[in-house]
Amino acid sequence: MVTTPDVPTLPYVLRQGIKYFELVAEPVRQQILPGLFIHGWGYNGTIPGPTILVKPGDDVCIRVYNRLEVPTSVHWHGLDVPNVMDGVPEIEPSPRIDPHHYFDYQFRITNGPGTHMYHTHFQSVIQEMMGLGGGFIILDPSDCEGYIQRDYFFMLQEFHVKNLPKGELHPGIYDIDPLSDRLNFFTMNGRCFPFTTPMEVDTGERIKIRLGNIGMMAHPMHLHGHQFIITASDGNPIPAAARLKKNTLLVATGETYDIEFVANNCGIWPFHCHVPHHMSNNFTPPTGGMFTTVRYRQCSGS
């Protein structure tokens, strides 16, 4: 099963063969570092929103409530859905969701297994940079047969937190400016290092990491101490003969990737964006930002 460190999985109710989910777009106070909170917009109380897990062929109904003071929508990024369900009301017949209203997005999962996202697609210049996004993953039944021992998803986001002088960190609750290009906090699943939760592994396990990016910046994600194989791009599997072995992967905005590696080098290993400014919290010297670790629970032979 997929784990999204520091972010919940969205529950559903099964009725007459349909999986019913509920998402609430609302203001969120998100703790990105101990004692340091941002006022943003998210789903069900978190930034990013809860991860949605489905299977190929599922029929789903996702009711989206709007508790914001502005209209919004949800786009199912990478999914082949009917036009009226695609969530771009300024272009398509898909309706906008006005404040204090809801809309039921209903469709069948026709894509194969893969990693996708959901996010607002109304006034995106503001709403995406306020935090409105989350992971949408179509599970692969073969992953449940023991080939993959641990499966992690990370949403990459970045924010301009206001009223913090450059190079300083102070506990408090801060507003963010979605229109600023002076981005100063870079998050994995809504947290900055060292507040991120490590990926725990055991020696010999095959690990999958899923990455999604809906922000402004591209992020070259680098894994220390291991080589990984890129197995899927934008939710589409890459044939075995075409897969690349790498240790750094550039994840552009709008992209998702799946990578796999074997846990064969015991220790505590960084996994992070390699842009130097993205490895800090408001440009302070200690390591921070879009950074987490792979942590072996027990080394072989120890």
UniProtKB/TrEMBL annotation:
Domain of life: Bacteria
Plastocyanin-like domain location: 40-142, 183-282
A Pfam family recorded for this sequence: Cu-oxidase_2
GO molecular function: copper ion binding; oxidoreductase activity
SUPFAM superfamilies to which the protein is assigned, alphabetical: Cupredoxins (SSF49503)
InterPro entries tied to this protein: Cu-oxidase-like_N, Cu-oxidase_C, Cu-oxidase_fam, Cupredoxin
Entry-linked PANTHER family: MULTI-COPPER OXIDASE (PTHR11709)
UniProt protein name: Multicopper oxidase
Origin species: Paenibacillus aquistagni
